[in-house]
Design goal:
Length: 169
């Protein structure tokens, strides 16, 4: 396919194609891709940008500009068990009050999500619980927290993975 535009933020990659393919999204560093063309009238993409938690795409043939919130993109559920413990970048990022991060477990594990500030101080520990094999998501409502850079860390089966997120109200 003819790639016309490509952007990324953390583990999320968005690709715009020519010749009627439209927009495709990966939320796991390109391991899986899915069609993100809902509401797009012209699938010949010439340019796009992410701004204020929205994806804007411009097509050809005077189709105008298409806008879609990044929060509308759901990760694709994989078939079968994942081969490793995966934590994706939160969506949206930056965010105003609520953000969601997704992860995949290769075996049943007790998951302990922890939010830390820029100095590494734990500011929120979300509910730890036993989770099954496969894809999961957790939302964090940060409406009571100050603007700033935070990290979210997931601990599962003796493995710890961290990502950065930005609260911007």
């Amino acid at each position: 396919m003819d790639v016309r535009a490509l952007i990324f933020a953390g583990d999320t990659i968005v690709a715009g194609f020519n010749h009627g393919a439209g927009v495709y999204l990966s939320m796991d560093s390109g391991l899986t891709w899915h069609d993100a063309n809902q509401g797009l009238t012209d699938k010949d993409i010439y340019a796009f940008i992410v701004f204020n938690s929205y994806l804007f795409a411009c097509g050809g043939r005077s189709s105008g500009v298409w806008r879609r919130p990044l929060s509308n993109f759901d990760p694709v559920k994989r078939v079968g068990a994942p081969s490793e413990f995966i934590l994706t970048q939160n969506i949206p990022n930056p965010f105003a009050t609520r953000t969601t991060f997704t992860f995949a477990l290769k075996k049943p594990s007790t998951v302990s999500p922890i939010i830390t500030d820029v100095l590494g101080k734990q500011v929120r520990i979300l509910d730890s619980k036993l989770m099954s094999v496969g894809d999961h998501s957790i939302s964090w409502n940060a409406s009571q927290f100050a603007n700033g850079v935070y990290s979210y860390r997931l601990e599962a089966d003796g493995i710890s993975i961290s990502k950065k997120l930005v609260a911007l109200k």
